[in-house]
Amino acid sequence: MHAWPASEVPALPGKGRDLRIHDTATGGRITLDPGPVARIYVCGITPYDATHMGHAATYNAFDLVQRVWLDTKRQVHYVQNVTDVDDPLLERAVRDGQDWTELAERETALFREDMTALRMLPPRHYIGAVEAIPGIVPLVERLRDAGAAYDLDGDIYFSVDADPHFGEVSGLDADAMRLLSAERGGDPERPGKKNPLDPMLWVAARPGEPSWDGASLGDGRPGWHIECVAIALDHLGMGFDIQGGGSDLAFPHHEMGASHAQALTGEHPFAQAYVHAGMVGLDGEKMSKSRGNLVFVSALRRDGVDPAAIRLALLSRHYRSDWEWTDQVLADAVERLARWRAAVSRPDGPSADALVEEVREALADDLDSPAALAAVDRWAALQGAEGGTDEGAPGLVSRTVDALLGVAL
């Protein structure tokens, strides 16, 4: 599966700072030192309704991670999946009378268009669940053969008791896990399971649903969590730097994925940091497909909204915060974009050397994009009030905003 084209990232003078990021597993900030190649895996969409502002906010956060790392002169090995076969996708296809593959292909194509418009840096590897199946099957077989998985009426379940580190990613107790499992695709009430929290690794073929040859597992399709594990292990290996996604993925998805990988390899941890973006709401509720309260990037673009303004709206809120999308949030972003463009359009201005370092420091400090925007606001205000004599300043500000914030002025 192909990703989307990369926008050029301007080089800035000097060198950026190492990233200090909030790690869900430890509950505090850690400083990451990835070495010459930073490795990140971000969970992708289930392509049946893309791309709403919740998606955009999540991918914006991890785009900032890439930009901070690139500014430290590192390479970035970024991997993202597409869950192009799963219950929600199949249910939507049945509801709308569509072929599930056509639905997935159409929504994935739209997602690519939105990511391109928002200038999100693409992953090096963009892998669909379906194309990953040949690598998933042997992992499930290994878990079963090692006693870390079991058969229940043809379905294969992972035994969470096989991983002594289970629970360390989310830090939740068993009761909270059980409630979230029921809400987020699990089946804790199914009779016959060894532990109510055990997730499915391989779904035996059902009438009317797609299935693939699972060798000794029988015909079927992969469970949700093992998909990401197979892709991450194949392209990044154990101990990669960041496992990323929305905060609703901490449990069960990232918890289960870590346990799958740790049981498979005997190594710990799966990722050095588990980083989660907050939820975006609308009209007092989390923006979600199930509620239908969605604001789509593509719809805003069709209405003539500049994608740079959409990106500035996302950047105006800290990535870990839960926040509400409103018309005013977008209006403020449109106005900010106009001010910045006016400021950099002049032939000279106040020195921007300090601004570069302010933006770097803000983003290195747990991706504090509101602080980064405030620094650019101060330069733009000084430009408007006093101007300056540095002929290189407007260009340096433009390159800084482009390289570190992904906004083209």
In words, what does this structure look like?
This protein is an alpha/beta fold and 409 residues long. The protein folds into two domains: 20-282, HUPs (Rossmann fold); 303-405, Four Helix Bundle (Hemerythrin (Met), subunit A). Helix content is 43%, strand content 15%. It is built from 13 helices and 14 strands. It has helices spanning 53-71, 87-96, 100-117, 129-145, 174-183, 224-235, 250-265, 297-302, 307-315, 327-344, 353-364, 369-385, 393-405; strands at residues 20-23, 28-31, 37-42, 75-82, 125-128, 149-152, 155-158, 200-204, 220-222, 240-246, 271-277, 280-282, 285-286, 323-324. A five-stranded parallel sheet has the order 5-4-3-10-11, sandwiched between helices. It has a four-stranded antiparallel sheet with strand order 6-7-8-9. The protein has a three-stranded mixed sheet with strand order 13-12-14, covered by helices on one side. Helix 4 (129-145) packs across helix 6 and helix 9 crosses helix 10. The longest helix is centred in the first third of the chain and has 19 residues, at 53-71. The chain is globular and about 75 Å long. The mean pLDDT is 96.
pLDDT < 50 runs, ≥5 residues: none
- Under CATH at level 1, the class of the largest domain stands as Alpha Beta
Helix content: 40-55%
Distance between the termini: 31 Å
Counted up, domains total 2
In this structure, how is the largest beta sheet organized?
Answer: 5 strands, parallel
Strand order of the largest sheet: 5-4-3-10-11
How would the global form be characterised? globular
What is the CATH topology assignment of the largest domain? Rossmann fold
CATH superfamily of the largest domain: HUPs
Q: What's the architecture of the largest domain in CATH terms?
A: 3-Layer(aba) Sandwich
Class of secondary structure makeup: alpha/beta
Tell me the number of helical segments per DSSP (H or I, 4 or more residues long).
Answer: 13
Please report the total strand number as a whole number.
Answer: 14
Average pLDDT across residues?
A: 96
Cα-atom radius of gyration:
22 Å
- Series of H and E elements: EEEHEHHEHEEHEEHEHEEEHHEHHHH
Proportion of residues in β-strands: 15-25%
